[in-house]
Structures are given as structure tokens and as C-alpha cells.
Amino acid sequence: MTDRQKLRLGLFGYGVVGQGLHDVLNSSCGFKAEIVRICVKDPTKPRRLPMKHFTFNRFDILDDDSINLVVELINDPDAAYEIVTEAMRRGKNVVSANKTMIANHFKELVDLQWKHNVSFLYEASAGASIPIIRNLEEYYDNELLHSLRGILNGSTNYILTRMFNENMPFSQALDEAIKLGFAEKDPSLDVDGLDAKYKLCIITGHAYGMFMNPEEVFHYGIRNISTFDIRYAKEKGLKIKLVPYVGKVNANTITSYVLPRFISTDKYLYNVDYEYNGVITEAAFADKQFFSGKGAGGHATGSAVLSDISALSYGYRYEYKKYQQAMVKNYTRDHRIEIYFRYKNDSDRDLLSFEEISEQFSGRSCKYVIGIVNLKRLYEIREMLSSMDIFIINTGRKDIN
Ligand code: HSE
User: Fold this and answer.
1) Which helix (H) or strand (E) holds 71?
2) What total number of domains does the chain contain?
3) Closest atom of ligand 1 relative to the 158 alpha carbon
4) β-strand 253-264 against 330-331: which pairing, if any?
5) 307 and 280 part of one domain
């Protein structure tokens, strides 16, 4: 058995996830790691631990040579970037849950850990309690992964569930998600699909070895969902979920996007409700697999952070196997998807440049079209989409290369 390294932790952030980690660490029987210091921003905020455990100066942790692991659980992605990169430069291993920061500096952070020979783990950054990154690294290392899709944002899934089950208005459901500590400090990251996109980009790095610039990936959230869309889905026996997708279009090319999607009762994601997340992988040999678990919340996220800390004590590091294999070389948005497009003004009808139309409806208050749209077109008009009184849903029936 490998000897476990004794870990002395410097923790950044003591919010929902930081406190969640603390609880999880305290209740863990098999594994003990000592939290030497906790660095927080706000000196006036009441804390549930005596003040002697806290510092407001990041260098009290970064300069302390006895601290061999930095755990970064703060909200601010820019400050997180400074802390994480400085910690690695100083030879400290790092665990982080900051998907915004990781997705926006992915390749650079990978290079930095190689350069300084440290380990940088971030299982909690995508799917919280679902161990998807380590599965992609270890189980799928040699698998031909056709696609991966799922629910990666707990807040939007929580909102959609409350809207569907109780006809709760969007804003009230969002307030609940904020109160429960699921939403980001800026909840538009959740609602507009950016959080899901950042997670998708991290997953893409491990699933296909491609470190995407998030700007290159189309995302569309649930901000503009209406009671009409919900009624339409219910009448057809469907639910609406926010579903990021990444998949191969040929042996060395992938595509990806984040879109709301209709889910029928026979699909795995149908029963993934509230803050739960779910991930479906489709691979050549393992075939279809489904992972599900809590995707937000202090303890669920803390459990993934604990798992990284424990893995680090055995010297675990990601090898980025798919990147090393370099099988996937191209990214394309030339990909056709069947879309439900709800709109109000006739002038908006041709906005998506439908290639084929299979269904249309024109009522007094709302109209919709269902047909094939190219992802390239959605990407072109992405800026205007979120401000218009329209809604777009992937029917899930056809993804055509
Ligand atoms: N705001 C995120 C979510 C938190 O709702 O999924 C977990 O990453």
C-alpha cells in the first residue's frame, strides 16, 4: 500500500462549500487532514468557529511552508486564479471547485501543474458529488467515447422542477435556489447556462483532451422560459431540463453546446429533479452509462473536495490521458439540431434560419416552430437571443452531423 502523505491544509473561503467541507472532514472516520488556517475576505462576518482559525491575508497561507495543500473554495474567479497559480508556483498541491476560473484558464493551469510538478484536482467543479472527472480519466482512459450529456447545474434543475411540479413562478423558484445555497453569487451564471458551460468545458478536457475556450461554445439558458413552454411540454408528457452536450461528429472532431432539452419519461434524466445532476456517457464498449447525484450544496460539494484531498494524500494527479493521446483534433459547430422555437412576433420567425420545418403553430399569444437548425446559426445570433421574448429547446429527437 502506498504511504499516505500527511496533509496540512490552507483553506480559502468559508462559505457554503467551505463549511460543507469542514463538516465532511470532521465526520470522516478513515481520513484526517488538519486545517491549519482559513483565509476569508470579510472580517466583519460572524463565523461559526473562533476567530483564531481565520486570517484575512492570503500570504499567511501561501508563505507557510508547513502547509502542503491549498484548498480554494471562494466565489471570486479572479482572486481564485491568483491564489491557485501562486500556490502552484510555490510547489503546493491545490484542490479547487471554481469552475469559472478553471474553464477560463484551463490549459494554462494544466501547464502550470506540470511545470511545478504539483497536483491540481477539481472533481467538485463539475457535477459536484458525481465523480465524473476521475471516471473519465481512469475508467474511460482508452474508451471510444461517443458523447456525454446531462444536467450539470443544480440551480436551474431546481428551478425547473419547482416550476413543473408546483407551477411556481420562475423568480420565486430562483429565490429558493439562492436561499438554499445552490445558486452562484451572481445567479445569472446559473440561469443563462454559463455555469453549465464551464462545467462542460472542464469535462471536455478530460473526455476528449480538448481545452476549449468557453467563448467558442454556444450556451443558452432558461431565463426566458414561459408558462406556454411548460404547458406545451406537459401536454406532450415531457419535462424541460438544461442539458449540456459534447460528442463526436467523426473520429477526430467534436462539437458541444448547452441548451434546454425536452426529456421524455423513458429517459434517464426524466427523474433527475431538484438540485440533482445526472450525466450520461455513451461509449463504444461500455455502451450507455448513467451517473446521478447531488449537483449543488455544501455537503455534496464538500464530499467531492474531500475525495480530492484524500486522493492527494496518495499522490494522485490527473494525467490528462485523452490530451496525451491527442485523438481529437478538431472542433466544429457545423452540426444540425432539431429545435422547438417559441416566439411572438412574426418578424422573429426566420431568425434561426430553419433548414427544415416539421411542425408549426400560431396562436393568439404565442407561436412555435419545430425544425432543423444549424448550431453555427445559433452561435452567430447568440448575443441577441437572451434579450428577446423567445425560447429555444432542443427536442432531443435529432442530432445530425
Ligand atoms: N451554482 C452551481 C449549481 C453550484 O447550481 O449547480 C454547483 O456548482
Assistant:
1) strand 69-72
2) 3
3) 5
4) parallel
5) no
